[in-house]
Amino acid sequence: MATHTGSNASPTGKKGKDAAPDLSDSFQEEQGQGGETHQTAQDGGAVLTTSQGVPVADDQNSLKQGARGPTLLEDFHFREKIFHFDHERIPERVVHARGYGAHGYFELTESLSDITRADIFQRVGEKTEAFVRFSTVAGSKGSPDVARDVRGFAVKLYTKEGNWDIVGNNIPVFFIQDAIKFPDLIHAAKPAPDRGFPQAQTAHDNFWDFISLSPESMHMVMWIMSDRTIPRSFRMMEGFGVHTFRLVDADGLSSYVKFHWKPKLGLQSVVWNEAVKLNGADPDFHRRDLWDAIDAGDFPEWELGVQIFDQEFADNFDFDVLDATKIIPEELVPVRIVGRLVLDRLVDNFFATTEQVAFCTQNIVPGIDFTNDPLLQGRNFSYLDTQLKRLGSPNFTHLPVNAPRCPFAHFQQDGHMAMHNPAGRANYEPNSWGPSLGGPREDPARGFTSVAATPDGDKLRIRPESFADHYSQARQFYVSQTPIEQKHIGDALVFELSKVERPDIRSRMLSHLMHIDDGLADTVANGLGLPLPEKAKAAVTPKADLPPSDALSIVKNGPDNFAGRKLGLLVSDGADAALVKALMDAVKAADALCEVIAPKIGGATLSDGTLLPAQQKIDGGPSVLYDAVAVIVSDEGAALLSKDAPSKDFVADAFAHCKFMGLSPEAKPLLVKAGIAEDLDDGCMGLQSADDAKAFVAALGPLRFWDRESKVDLDAMTD
Description:
Rossmann fold; alpha+beta; 719 residues; six-stranded parallel beta sheet; Catalase HpII,  Chain A, domain 1
C-alpha cells in the first residue's frame, strides 16, 4: 500500500489514487546514514506491518550483527517478506523466468592451490561437468529475448566435492545493497498490479519511481541504460559473480575474490531500434543463436577470471567491497584468467533440464566462502526457499540436472517425490550401529568449514556509512564509454523516461543524473523538454576524479574479426555466381556464417544456371537478424526488389543500424528506392570481384560503422 502526500492533482489533471504528489515533495525524503530513502507514516497514512499485523520500524535494512556484519536469521520481517516474494509465481520463476541452457565443461588452465583448497582449482587440465542457464530478469516465460534487461548468467559446476553454483549476471553490480529491498525492486519493475502491463520492460512509472527514490541504484542505471542490456548474443556477453566471495586455503587463511566470465568472441550488443525489430522478427533470437552455434559445432566459450585481493586492499579501497552496487576496476586489481568454460552439448529436453535446474548462491564447496554482503546473505535464504515452491518439494536435488555427480550421503528422507531414502536401520546420528550400518559421519578434515570472523558489533538495522557513495562509480562508468556508447545511454534514458507519465518522477531522475555527468543530465533534460531541477541530496560528496576504465566499454572490448557472426546475403535470380561463391567462401574462411535471403524460399537461380538454396524468404529475413549484409543481384532482380517493401526495409534498416554493407553495382536501384543511395559511406563497400569479397569480409571486424550514426539519428544531428 502506498501513501501519497501533497496535492491530489495529477499531471493530467486527474484526481484520485493515481494522483501525483507535489514536485517539491520528491526532493525532501529522509535518508539514513547509507543514503537510503526512508518514508515514514504520517498524516493518518497507513502504517506498514508484517502479515501478522506487527508494525515495521525499518523496511530498508535487514537485521545485522553490526553495520557490516552478517544478516541474522531472527529477522522475521526480512524472512517473511522474502518468503512471500519467493512464492508469488505459479509455476514459473518470479524472476529469470525466460531462460535457456546448455551442457558443457569447465577446464582449469591455472592452478589456485596456493590460495584455495577448492578441489576444482587444483589440477591444471582437469575438466568438470557444467550446466549454464542464461535468462532475462523482468519478463515472463513468453517475453521476447532482446528486451532491454539484465541477463542472468548462472553456472552449475558438478565438482568432486559437491555442486558449486556461480549465480551471476551479465552486469557486475546490482540495483540494491540489501536483500530486504529485492521484492520492492522486482514489484516496481514487473507489470503494474492493477493493469498487468507493461511486459518485460522498465519504461514505466513504477520502476522509475522506485529507482529515483533509491540513490543506491544509480550505478546500475548507467549499466542498464547502456547497450549491455541488449546483447547481440549470449555468446557475446560477459558474466559476473556480482558479489565479493572468499577463497580459503588448506590452513584456513582467506582472500577476497570476484568472479568474471569473459567471452572468447568479444563483447557485442545491438542498437535499440534493432532490438525492437528483432523482437518482432524473431522473439527467440538469443535462444536460436545459442542452439544453432552448438548444433554447428561452434562451441561458445568463456574464460574464467578472478580478481583476488586481501584485507589490506579492502581496507584502503575507496568503496566497500561488501557493497554489491560497486565494482573493483580491473586497472586496480587485474583479472587473472584461470580456466575456460565451453558449452558443447544441447539439452535433450527443455523442461527436464533448463526449466527444472535450480541454482542457489548458497551452493558452495570447501575452499569457497561467503562474505557479509547483505544482498548475498539474503539471496542465500531466498534461492533455496524459492526451489521449494517452484519445483514442488524439498527433493529437487533428486532431479538429474540438480543432483551432484560426486558420491553423497545424508539422513534426509521422505517428502514429496522422494526418489531415494537412507537404507538400513539408522536414519539419524549420532548412532551406535557402527561404520557399516550406521551411515555417514562428519569429516573435520575434508568437510566444509566457515572462515572464522569476529562479530562486527551490536545487533541493529542500519546501512553502513561505507555504502553511502552512490554516484562516483556511476560517473566512472559513464566517462569510460566511447562517445557513441555515451550517446546510447542518453538515448535510452530519454526513451524510458518519456514513457513515464508523471513529470515529477522524470525530474527526480534528472536530479540524480546531475551528480553523474552534467552533459548527460543536459542531454536527457533536453530530450524530455524539461528544465534541470535542483540536485538530489547526496549522502556523501561524489568523487569526480575516478579514472576511466576501458574494461567497462563494449566497443573497446569487441572482436577484431567477424568470427562467430552471421552475414545476411540478399540475392536474386541472375546474380553473379562467381561473386556469390567468392563471398560465401570468404565468410566461411573467417569462421563466420552466411545466410542466403531471396524473394522465394526455394532460392535463386544464379548467372551460371545453378540454384542457390535460400535459408530465408525476404519477408522473414530482415537485416536485423544479421551482423552485416551483402546485396548481390541482377539488373532484373534489383528492379523487382525495388518494388518490394521488405527488400527496401532490408537495406534501409541495415544502413540505419550502422552495419557494414557489401553491394554489387546492380543493387543501386534498390538503394535509390530505399532512400539511401546518396548517403553511402565507407561502411558501404562495392562488390564486383573475388578480391572485393575478401576485402569486405576482412573489414567486418569492428562490426559497426559508427561514424554513420550522425546521419541517421536526429539526436546525434542536433547534439
